[in-house]
Amino acid sequence: MSIHQLRATSEPCLLHIRGKNRLLSLLPAQDYEHVRPLLEEVSFDGRVGLFKSDEPLSHVYFPLTAVASLVLTMDDGDGVEVGTVGNEGLVGVPLTLGADRSPAEAVLQIPGDLLRITADAFRNELDRSPVFSSVMRRYSQAFFALVSQSTGCNRLHPVEQRLCRWILMTHDRVGADHLPLTQEFIAIMLGVRRASVSVAAGMLQKAGMIRYRRGTIDVVDREALEEGSCECYARVRSEYERLLC
User: Where are the alpha helices (DSSP H) in 53-158?
Assistant: First the structure.
């Protein structure tokens, strides 16, 4: 069965499936039962690193409730997020393309549960199952669309629009209105100073879009956030739905 057949017979698209990983849910029962014994559930309660940049990847991670950020760090120590992964995807895209390491490090943005599979077992599944390979590589294409759009967004759009986009992306992946996010972490994700985050978050709060307290953001008016975001959020979401629904 191809992923196109899976799309034709599936329910309407929900990128976030509470407590499950979307990519694994797209697999036919036979493929999932083959890979299931290879998956190990792991949980983290802090913002830990899943892998470092330019080091061989030992595992691929399928988030269930956790959300990870791919962060690129420059020689001067400044970093910026280049991609976000929740339970719609996987952490370890280079392995889907035959590479063994990433130029960015993976850090948990929202702690929680993940399933992981060893790099060798993942490669074997890519070779064994055309459907498994198709699902994982389609996700890779969606992820590259996110990285490309984020690059342009970070260069061209105001901080408050970028913050709307980033909150919406995180909201999609968490599936809840309460987001445990510190000002310092948001600044790293957006590649700006903490003072800029404080000003932008204050503007969104004054507009009634969010409640912003130390270490947390609560989504109050999602529709207003979508209106306040640049076009980048809608473009990326559309690409994810095209490829994964």
Answer: 119-128, 130-156
